[in-house]
User: Which sequence fits this backbone?
């Protein structure tokens, strides 16, 4: 976890990056990162300050085990050999990163947040899909 409170008058960078250059441990060594633009920070300031909270979750792939999906469940008469070929395992193949800006409420940013993830494995992996948690639930 990394918490930052920045004085907006001192924000010179075009982007604020997590993990920071001063971060220690395995997060600094990874290629995963979140980039927030200066404009997004300035739009969410309060009394000259902006609050940022970054959370990085490691090893969730060990907890969230693969889920088998049957692409052709509507056709129950398929023989077992065909069914095996049409079965896909979905896996969590990156670390999970969370970012909170301002009061931590859901906010609409005028500029995109850039998020970069490195796959944990590249062997026997096809058709990657980017997903997110539904924060409204």
Assistant:
């Amino acid at each position: 976890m990394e918490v930052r409170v920045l004085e907006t008058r001192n924000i010179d960078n075009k982007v604020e990056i997590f993990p920071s250059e001063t971060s220690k441990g395995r997060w600094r060594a990874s290629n995963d990162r979140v980039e927030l633009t200066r404009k997004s920070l300035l739009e969410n300031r309060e009394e000259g300050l902006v609050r940022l909270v970054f959370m990085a979750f490691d090893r969730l792939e060990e907890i969230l085990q693969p889920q088998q999906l049957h692409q052709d469940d509507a056709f129950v008469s398929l023989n077992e050999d065909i069914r095996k070929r049409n079965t896909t395992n979905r896996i969590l193949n990156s670390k999970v990163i969370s970012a909170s800006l301002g009061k931590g409420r859901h906010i609409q940013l005028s500029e995109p947040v850039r998020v970069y993830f490195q796959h944990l494995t590249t062997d026997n992996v096809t058709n990657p899909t980017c997903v997110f948690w539904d924060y409204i639930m």
Remarks:
- The CA atoms of residues 58 and 129 lie 19 Å apart.
